[in-house]
Amino acid sequence: MCDLDHAHQHQPYGFLVDTPEIRGLIDETHRLRAAVHDDATRVEALRPAFRALLAADGWLPATCAQPDEASRMGGGIGQYALYRAEDGSLCLFSLVVPVGAATPVHDHLAWGLVGIYRGRQDETVYQRLDDGRDPARARLEIARRRTLAPGEFYTLLPPADDIHYVKTVSETPSISIHLLANDTACVWRHRFDPASGAVTPFRSGYANAPCPPDAAS
User: Fold this and answer.
1) What angle in degrees, to the nearest 10, is found between the helix axes of 20-35 and 39-55?
2) Number of separate domains in the chain
3) What is the pLDDT of residue 19?
4) pLDDT-derived band of residue 10, with 50, 70 and 90 as boundaries?
5) What pLDDT, on the 0 to 100 scale, is given for residue 216?
6) Can you tell me the distance from the alpha carbon of 56 to that of 148, in angstroms, rounded to the nearest whole number?
7) Per-residue confidence at 215, pLDDT binned at 50, 70, 90?
8) CATH code, domain carrying 168
9) What is the arithmetic mean of pLDDT over 6-35?
C-alpha cells in the first residue's frame, strides 16, 4: 500500500503493507512487549525475528523502495510506513536514501532496531556532551563511524547512540528497515547541526500516510 497517489485514501494505521514476513515480526514484537518489561532485554530478544525479515526476499513493494522528491528530510529520501500502531506505540518503515544522499543529523526518541535491506550505508553516531537543558543547543562529538551492508543491523536504546546520520555509499539507493517504539515520522524529533550546535524540531513525515493533526502537541 505504498501507492503515493492514493495513500491518504487508505487506512493509515495497522498493516499498510501486509505480508507474512511483516506480520511475523510485528506479532513477535507484541508478544515480547507483553512478556518482557526491560527495553534492552526485549530488543535483544527481537534480534532473530528482525534478522529473518532482513534476510527474506520479495516482501517490500517497489513503491516503498523508491526516492521521494517531496521528502521533508531532503535529498529525495523516502520514508514509507509498513506498519503503524494506532496508539503511536510501534511502527515499521522503510527508509530509502538515494545514491550520495545523507539524512540530517537526527534522533529517534524510542528503542528499536535498524537494519540494511539493500545497498550500503555509512553511519556516523554522535555523543551528546551537554546536559540538554537548552532545547535549542547541543554540543556533539563523533562517537564512531561504520559501514553497514545488507543484513547488518543495530539497536537503539536512547539516550545512548540515538543521534546519528546515514549516507548511502553504494551504487544504488540504500534501503534500511526500522522497527521503533513510537510513530517515528509523526513525532516531533530533533535535527542537529554539529558545527553550530543548533537544534531544531522536525517531523519527517511518511510519504504514504498522514500524520495526525495533533502530533505536534
Assistant:
1) 170
2) 1
3) 97
4) low
5) 44
6) 18
7) very low
8) 2.60.120.10
9) 88
Cβ distance 182 to 201 under 8 Å?
A: no
Cell of 71: 521528502
135 is in which domain, residue-wise? 13-202
Can you give the pTM of this predicted structure? 0.92
Q: Per the domain annotation, does 215 fall within a domain? A: no
Segment 109-143, tens digit of pLDDT:
999 999 999 999 999 999 999 998 999 999 999 99
Residue 217 located in a structural domain: no
Average pLDDT taken over every residue of the chain: 93
pLDDT at 7 over 80: no
Domain contains 39? yes
Residue 133 within any structural domain of the chain: yes
State the cell numbers at 49.
Answer: 525475528
Other C-beta atoms closer than 10 Å to the C-beta of 51 total 16
Write the CA distances from 184 to 5, 26, 91, 131, 137, integer angstroms: 22, 16, 7, 24, 22
